[in-house]
Amino acid sequence: MEMYALVTGRPGVGKTTLVRRVVEKLRKEGYTMAGFFCPEVRQSGRRIGFRITSLDGSLEAWLAKIEGCNGPRVGRYNTCQEAEEVARRAVEHIDDVDLIVIDEIGPMELRLRGIREVILRVLRSGKPGLFVVHERLSDREILPILQRRGRWYRVTVENRDRLVDDVYSFVKSLVKRY
Ligand SMILES: Nc1ncnc2c1ncn2[C@@H]1O[C@H](COP(=O)(O)OP(=O)(O)OP(=O)(O)O)[C@@H](O)[C@H]1O
């Protein structure tokens, strides 16, 4: 049974923008949501790391940085343990919301054990979800669950505006069903 809208696509194509637009539309209609975003941080045009923020913006921390954190390394970045607490707290009221939103489920997020556990808890909760999924996700436990229960939306420059309504309608149908 489908219960997740899975947004994927090339880096920088507009996945986060699409999810934010869908979340905004749902919020205006009174739907309640929990989850987190993982925005990149640039300094003088150069990407120096990623933050993690709760969906409502009230919690935030570093997720990964080139310099300054000492969690497991992913490419050029060291992950930051402080991110685990934000992820945990961002979904602590999971039973009280209509929808879980996670941007994104990728190698960096899953490298932190606390975030991996949060994502598994979300997947076990029975709540519908709107997730950005890294196009090269290969996690042997999480990817099969997503594939079994998700409908994929591959974002391109051509379809990214049109997809907002498609994803929005699908997510609404999921919330009604669960
Ligand atoms: N529908 C759109 N119309 C115009 N510009 C857009 C649109 N969607 C995204 N953009 C622009 O493209 C850039 C990248 O968008 P966004 O961060 O949403 O991409 P992403 O796929 O989430 O990136 P990443 O792979 O880094 O997570 C931003 O500057 C954003 O303003």
UniProtKB/TrEMBL annotation:
The keyword Iron does not apply. It comes from Pyrodictium abyssi. This is Nucleoside-triphosphatase PABY_16310. The lineage of its organism: Archaea, Thermoproteota, Thermoprotei, Desulfurococcales, Pyrodictiaceae. ATP binds at residues 9-16, 99-106. Belongs to the THEP1 NTPase family. It comes from the Archaea. Its EC number is 3.6.1.15. Has nucleotide phosphatase activity towards ATP, GTP, CTP, TTP and UTP. May hydrolyze nucleoside diphosphates with lower efficiency. The keyword ATP-binding applies. It catalyses: a ribonucleoside 5'-triphosphate + H2O = a ribonucleoside 5'-diphosphate + phosphate + H(+). CDD domains: RecA-like_Thep1 (cd19482). Keywords: ATP-binding, Hydrolase, Nucleotide-binding.
